[in-house]
Each structure stands twice: as structure tokens, then as C-alpha cells.
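Exercise 7. Predict the joint structure of the components listed below.
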Amino acid sequence: MRRYSPVDFTRVSLTGPFWSERLETVLTRTVPSQYKKLDENGILESLDLKDPPPPLRVPFNDQGFTMQYFWDSDIGKWIEAAGYALRHRRDAEIERQVDEIVDKLEAAQMPDGYLNLWYQGHEIENRWTNLRDRHELYNIGHLLEGAIAYYQATGKRKFLEVMERSLDHIRSTFGTGPDQKRGYPGHQEIEIALIRLYQLTGERKQLDLAAYFIDERGREPHYFDEEAIARGDDPTKYHFFNSGNYEYGQAHKPVREQDKVVGHAVRAMYMYTAMADLAAELDDDSLRHACEVLWKDVTTTRMYVTGGFGPSASNEGFTTDYDLPNDTAYCETCASIAFVFWAQRMLNLDLDGQYAEAMELALYNGVLSGLSRDGELYFYENKLDSDGSHRRWPWHPCPCCTMNVSRLVASVSGYFYSVGPGAIAVNLYGGNSAELELDGRRIRIEEQSNYPWSGKIKVSVHPDGHGVFALKLRIPDWARDGVATLNGNPVDVPGQLQNGYLVIERDWIEGDVVELDLPMTPRRIYANPKVKMDRHRVALARGPLVYCAEQVDNETPVPDLILSRDAAITETNRSDLFDGIVSLTAPAKSIGSDDWGLDLYRTTPPTPADTTLTAIPYYLWANRDAGPMQVWIREG
Amino acid sequence: MRRYSPVDFTRVSLTGPFWSERLETVLTRTVPSQYKKLDENGILESLDLKDPPPPLRVPFNDQGFTMQYFWDSDIGKWIEAAGYALRHRRDAEIERQVDEIVDKLEAAQMPDGYLNLWYQGHEIENRWTNLRDRHELYNIGHLLEGAIAYYQATGKRKFLEVMERSLDHIRSTFGTGPDQKRGYPGHQEIEIALIRLYQLTGERKQLDLAAYFIDERGREPHYFDEEAIARGDDPTKYHFFNSGNYEYGQAHKPVREQDKVVGHAVRAMYMYTAMADLAAELDDDSLRHACEVLWKDVTTTRMYVTGGFGPSASNEGFTTDYDLPNDTAYCETCASIAFVFWAQRMLNLDLDGQYAEAMELALYNGVLSGLSRDGELYFYENKLDSDGSHRRWPWHPCPCCTMNVSRLVASVSGYFYSVGPGAIAVNLYGGNSAELELDGRRIRIEEQSNYPWSGKIKVSVHPDGHGVFALKLRIPDWARDGVATLNGNPVDVPGQLQNGYLVIERDWIEGDVVELDLPMTPRRIYANPKVKMDRHRVALARGPLVYCAEQVDNETPVPDLILSRDAAITETNRSDLFDGIVSLTAPAKSIGSDDWGLDLYRTTPPTPADTTLTAIPYYLWANRDAGPMQVWIREG
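Solution:
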């Protein structure tokens, strides 16, 4: 069913300033510093199984849960990011670090293939007794993704072989056979990893195991009930995070019957990603349909304007339709990252631009906000309104978001293109040089642009030989007035628009040039009034970037700002800010007038004072002095 | 220092429809039904000291605290309300009920005078070891007020004598003498009761004990620290309500040094009431000054527009300046009642109309909202914004507010007048017939009016004999355009206005008539923009009544209503609602437009639809179908 395929990120070299800066930061600062933090925070220490185990680094919480249960995944995720870094450029020190970890994992692995540092270090007798809460399969998923990336970067097979033994053990333990447990992960992730392994090796058994986990999920009798009874627990008591239900892990019913996006946001998005992958690999219309229903649900009722997901800290996830509070928004960085994964899979099913549009939104806003300018500080929660107390942190007891953002940025160029039958699609913009393959032909695409600061994009095509193919250039929703030329001659953009892509099909020859001019006019965004928190408020955006008012740029206290509906919004090139950005300014009012004296109440309304509003891209906030920030600004 | 005195409520017969309805409801329904609820909920059972004690009716909370600690106070408060009811009309059944309680209290009292049903029933060995948290003195205060009221109603002295023995015991236990504990109540109240006893009996020792409690409060070394150490507790751990500080009970420093209204709102207001009483009785300028500073603080930074106090449930009290959230407002009914007590004391110091203005506001709004139309349901918390889930309850594990509202309404006519040297002041309006004494003369005042529904007030004066005196008629702030006539001839209201009162001094003769016409034009009230929760919102008021939009009167969901700044507000006589009220209506908009389809975000703003807003007096809400309610309505 998948008609388009992604392009391996190593085929696309980033040359534009925006993404090459982020990529360099991640390669030179984030990935190396993360190894140090894994070390300093005791995560690497867990590789040395000791008897008795050292004291817990992260104590049990009041639910009897420690973050150490999922440290294996953090190791796996760092190796994945490191693998991507090595594919950009080999680095002996990083390889030494990974090799040392892999040797320890190999040494730790049990003869039957079982591998889990927590259980092996603390309570091996309880292995595989609590899939619901304990992340054993999730951990294997992330380790497997790390093994794949490291193999692809170095050709070294040891880690992959460790993981294949582990998978064989899992395959013998779980399944529908008479001596097997019908279990599946409490926290989805391994499904994605198994499909990636299948795509690497072509081994059907890996795909089948992924499909088993997805198909079995939420079936009755409920496995999580059965395993709870088996270990002497009351299955009606679902302890962790007080969620008290199986919606938390999207295991409340079979996945094909799910039509509402519920529960823990990252689990949800990882599961939808795997479902979309399986829909493509297995040509499974029922999975595809379920994905489409869930996509529509989340994007029409439960998505922040920044491409953030999950309003609630208590379940790290979803609540009710249109419940999108700004100051208490959870919006875990991982959720936006996982949404990018899902969106890419949906996009490649049939290249519907809505998926690329949402993918770009999440990438430039909800994802990038998770990493500081210097590449060494993080947001776990990406709020849309802050009183100034929400700041980036250098590490976290649950460091999942840190390595998630590095693995995505390190491989971001893989999201720029899709290749399908007779077509190359440009999903994302930004200067790059891409060596693509289409139906056996090599085609080089060169893009020059300063996107997203500028909407001017020059794409030159360098095909190897002759033959007709379509170049499909995405025209974002906000750029429907965009114009294009082919070798200087106007192109009928509206007439050639298909599913959000400008389609130019021809026998491309060396040096053909398409130039796009996507209008970057600042725009106002309004939320459906059912989103009560955003009523009487407006968000500003320019191109794919959502903006915010941060205190450091504004004389008026940010919560006091009022933007009138007809105020002109001016773009300013601020070469002095960061590496040069476009900021937005507008005449505004401040409600915090000072003519009230001691009155607490009076019969005459406040008289707002004139002021100026300045907004910067949301992803850049909290890189300077601490202060309030708002995405949704009062309009009046 | 007190230049004015209140008038005993039995001297003022309420004849106007507004207050006579509330009074009758309290006398015929509230007071009798409260006895039944005291009985049904086991509170009266605690009078029968049993060994072993029966199981707790209200279990210990997670702080190790049970509401049963203060059930004595509920008994005392009910007797006080019952005593007021008996002063309106004797009732053999109520007297029988009170007498039975008094007999049991007398039987329970220990030989040394100690009386506390909790400690005597459960842990007598621990008496007087935790004044900070355990309400022994608070309970005695309320019992004493009950004893005074019952004596005044019936002439029966038994209860008063029980309480006098109890006070003698307290007086010997606490004080500055060498063998005494320098203790004072954790929850203030007994001070007010002692001053009332002094005013009844003239015994200086009662006033001195009140003054001791006030003077000792907050001194170092801190008594609450010392008693905590003595009972083996860590004084730095202040358990109850997690307040963790002595601000909670206004014991953080000596009362004369306090300049911010902090902590538990009811404790605060009871203390200020006693301080103002003592300022008058002892001619104590330092206490008066402290009261004035605290009054200014609360009314300019920490008072709800309804005359509610205390935004926070966690400490049942105050937080920070301008922190007045509406949907989470605590605004305990008791706090507004206690504020009325304080305001009356401040008013009588020198008849400054600001105190009467605030007293009237709290009385008509924050207090009356606490009692249902039928007199048998209550609000403990008086929110200013509800999603529909906040409803009145028939009883409460901490039933303090129930009997507090009955004792105030049963004696409300005592707040209408003040009498000072050569002057009678009319503080509150509403038809009544008052038999007053001024400098030895009897003067009858008859007021005819349908206040607060109408601003037309006819006051006729019937003096006994001749002599000049001033009649002072309060002109509320919202009625500064009000007009007046004396025997049909215009009076120069602005010219004769002193401290918010229209002063007419003359040799009044039988049948002199003053007619006031106070304009009842609906008005808009705005909050200082520092109150962030009320920004871009407006409250409506008419006369002393604050209004609210309740769902049952509005087709548009209340949270969707937008009132434009220039919309005309129309008054409607609604004889069909309750006993007949004035409602307010205005053309308005509804933001909940239905033209959004599935869009979650878009670049065109919502287009509000036309609708009508209907508002009713706040005190009447939640007497019909459940639904959302807002005092502060979006203005735009």
C-alpha cells in the first residue's frame, strides 16, 4: 500500500543555514555531552551488573516505580543518535564508547537471550511478570534501534546479534502458541524497531512479531489482567500514574477499533507509527483506516498550535476534546517527535500534503523547542504560556526526550524527500543537496534557500539520463498564494496542485530549475472557540514557525499585552539575535495601566496604554533571561 | 473611643419584604432544621460522654485531624441562633432542646470548670496541650455566645453560669502570672465572646481576658513553639492544612505590628473584630490604627467584588495581593459573616460610611449566598464562577457556616442603625420599625421601602418630646446622585454629606418625613487589572446587589457570553422569579459560533452570534436547575 518511501538521511546533505546549524550543534555538542550525562547520572553504571546492586540512583516514587526501569532505553536511544552522528562522520571516541557499552550488553545477556539491566540487576525472578508497567519490551525496542543505527554506521554486527538473540527469546516467550504468553508491551516502541529490522534484513519473522504485538493489543481476555492475577496483584488497580484504565497505554480495545486518541501521548504516537508502518508493509486497509480516523481525531480536537500533544502531566497525555491549556500544557518533546514519525508514515502512504504540513509544524515548533540553542539544555514539557518559572534543564530523571531530540535532528534530512513511482516529492524545504534514486536512476536535487526565514526556494534538477518523472513540491496551506517558475517561466500553481503538492511532470534535464516564492506574510491564527483557553486570543505565525512573545523582548509584561485585531504586524530581520532571525512586531496595548491608585474595583474600565509587542519563533524561547512567555496573546 | 453603638436587634422590627422573608425563613425553617441535623449527624450525641467513646463520626483526615474537635462550637452557635429566634418569639420546643443540651453540658463540666466534649470523651490527659490546632478556646467562645443569647432570650442563667465557671478555669490557667501558661487560641473567637459578656455584665475581668489573648498573640518566645516542644512535637512542623507558618492563625507577630491580612480568613476576621471592639472599649489607639491598616489592606487588595474573602481552599484563606480567582474562590460564608462583624465595629468607631458600604456589600452578597432560598441548603464556599458542579449541600462535616448564617440573619436588624451622641445613623435600608433610645429619649423611626429592589425610601420620625438631634442617612457610593426631601422640601444632599452620610440635624417633630430616592441604575464594575482573573471582564450590580449570569436564565452557555462595553442594560421586574426580583438583561454576543466545522485552527477569527444576557442577584444563584454561573462576564 505504501506508494512512497522515505530517503535515507545520508543521501541528503543539509546546506541551508537553519538545519545545518541545528545538525552541527547536535553532532558536536548534544551527542557527546549526552554520553557524559549518561555516565555522570549512573545510567552507564547499570551496565556493570553487581551483586548486591548499588543503591538506586532514582528512588522509587509513591507508586513504587523508579525511572531506572527504563534506563536501557536511554542507552539504546543514545547509541541510535550516536550511530546517526557516525554516519555523518566517523569518530573513534564515540565508537569506543559504543563498543564498550555493546561489550557490556553482550556480557550481561543471559544464555536464553533475556536482556534487561534492571531485572538482571535487581529482581531477575520477576522478569516478564509485568509488561504493563515495566518497560522490558520498550527497552529492547530502543536498544534494537540503536543496534540498527550502529550497524548501519560502522558495519559492526555484534550489537545487532545481541539484539537478534534477545528477539528470538522474546519470540519464543510471547505469541499465540500453546506454551506462549499472549503478552505485548505496556509502552509501545518495539514494534517500530522490529519493522525497521525487517526493512534492514528482510526477515519476515521480525515483521510478524511487530504485527503480533499490534494485533494482540487490547484483546479480551486482557493480558494485563491475567499477568496481574498471576503475580498476585489486583488487576483493577492500575497503579502507575493513577491512570486506572487501559486507555493510558491504548490497550483498552483492539487497535482497529480505536477511534479516539487517548492516554499517554508518546505511547499513542509510537503505536500509530507502527500501525501505519504495518498498514504499508502488510497492505492492511483496516490498520490504515484506523490510522486515518485517529489522525483526524487528534488534528481536529487534541493538537496544540505548536504541534504539541498531551495537555496533562498526570497521565503524560490526552484528556478531553479541545482541552488544550497553555500554562499547564505537558506537550512532552517525545510526543511531538513521535508524531513526526507517524506523520512521515502517513505521508508516504499516498503523499497527502496534510501529513507533511503537520509534520513540518511539529518539527519546527513542538520538537525544536525541546532543545536549547547551545544543544545541552532541554525541555521535557513544552508549555505555551509561562510565568517565567519554566526553564530548560540540563538533565532529567527520565531523560527520554534528550536522546529523542538528538536522534531526530541527527536524521532530519531523511524527512525532506519521498520517492514514489515516477515521482520525487519535496516535503520540507531548506538548502540541501540530495542524491536520490528513482526507478533505478540517480537524480541529484540541489536546493538553495534560506527557508524558513525566506520563502524563496531554488531547486535545480540533475538527472542521470533521460526519462519522464514528476517533481512534486509541497505548497504549504499558508502559501497557497505562492508562485513558481520553471526555468524562468511561470507555472500554474493552482492548476497543477495535487493533494497539497505542485506537480511538474516532464523529462527533466540537467540544470532545470524550479523557483518557488512562498509568501512569508505573518499571519494570525485563531483557535476553535471550543478551546476555551484560547478564546479572545491570537497566535502569530510566519511560514512554518509559530511565534511567541517572550518577556526579554518586551517592555510591557507579556501577560499585559493586548494585540488589536487590525494592528499591522511587521517583520524585522534581527541579525543580532541568535544566528539571525526574523522577529515580528506590532503596535499593541498594555492592560496594566497605572491610573488605578488604590482602587480594587471601580465603575470605569481600565484605559490600556500604548506599547509594542515583539514576538520571536517559539522554538527559540527560554534561551535568554528568564521571564514570562505566551504563544496565545490576548486580542482585543 | 467608640462614638456610636449598635442597636439591639429586638428594637428593630423588619417590615420590608426583603429581610422579613429571609428572617422568617431562618426562624421557621433554618433554625429548627439545624437542630435535626445536629442530632442526625451525631453532634448532639457527643454531649453524652461515654466510656469507651463511640466510633468517630468524622474520621481523622490525613493530617490526623477530625472535624469533631470543634463540634462544641457548632452546638454553641446553634444555641446562639436559637436564642435569637426565641427573642423574636418564644418557642417551648426550642427551649426544651436548649435546656436539654445545657443540662448535659452542666453534667459534663469537670469540677475545675474545664469543658470540652472532645477531650473529655477521648483524651482528657491531653487537654490544653495544643491550643494551636485543637480549638478548645474557640469552642468555649461559641458556647459563651450561645449562653449569652439564651440568657437574653429567656432569663435562664444556668448556661451562663456553666460558662462563667469555665472562664474562671481558663483565667486561672492562662495569663502572665508565674504559674500560668501564656497561651492564646489557635482559632480566635473567644475574644469576641468575652467582650460581649463584659458588655452584658460589666465585669472587667472578662474584658481583661480578651485583651490578654489579643496582646499575647504572636509574642516571642512563641507559645505555640513552647507547647509543641512540651508535648514532644517539632514546632517547625505545623501540620494542619500544611500551612507551615503562624500567618495561618495571624500569630506570626504581635497584632499591633500586623499590616497585611493573612492566613485563615475567618480567624483573621474574628480577630480584627475583637481588636476593633477592644480599641473602643479600652480607647486603644494602637489597636484602632492596626485595624485601619488591615482594613485598607484587605479592601484594596484582597476582597472579592461580592464581599467574599479568602481565595484559597488549602488554608481557607488569603494568598497574595490581587489573587482573586473566581472558579476556585473559597470565600467561606463564615469569612463574609465575620467581616460584617468587623465592619460594624469599625463603623461604630466614628461612623465612616466606607465601613457600612462594605458591610452592606458582604451582607447582601457574600453572606446571603451561603443560604438557599428554602433555608435548608448551604454554601460553604461561595465561588464567583462555576461550571455547574458547585451546588448547595444540606450539611457539611464542618458545619460552621450553617449556624453562622442563621445567627447573623436572625439578628440582622441589629445592623440597621447606630446611635451616637446626638445622632441616629441609618446604616442599612429596608422597611422597618425601630424603637431607639438617644440620650435618654425614646425615638421611633418608621421606614417604608422596598429596598434593595427599589431605591425609594420613606423615613418618618416619631420622637418622644423635643430636642435637636441629627438623623444620618447613609448615601451609598453608587447613589451619590441620590436626592432627598424633608417633609416634601428638597434637601441639599451633596452639601449635607459627611463621611458618606446625609446629615439632617434639627428639632425633629412627630411625623417629620425624609424621603430618599437612591438611583438604582444598573452599573458595571471593573476590577483593577492587577486582578488577572478579572481582566477583560465586567461585573454587573444594581444597588447593593451584585449580579451573576446563571445558566438557567440564559440560552447561550454562560461561559460563551460576551457583553459589549456599550450595550444598554435593562432592568426587568420579574414577579415570576422567587418572591419577585429585578433581573438585568442586555444584548450580548456568544463566542461559541458554530461555523468552524472540523477546524481546530484557522486564520479568520470567530464571528460571535447575537444573543441576550440575563443576570440575577448573585445571592440567589443555585436555587434552580444546576448549570454554569459567572459573576465576571467577558466584555468585548
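Discussion. Residues 17-40 of chain A form the longest helix (24 residues).
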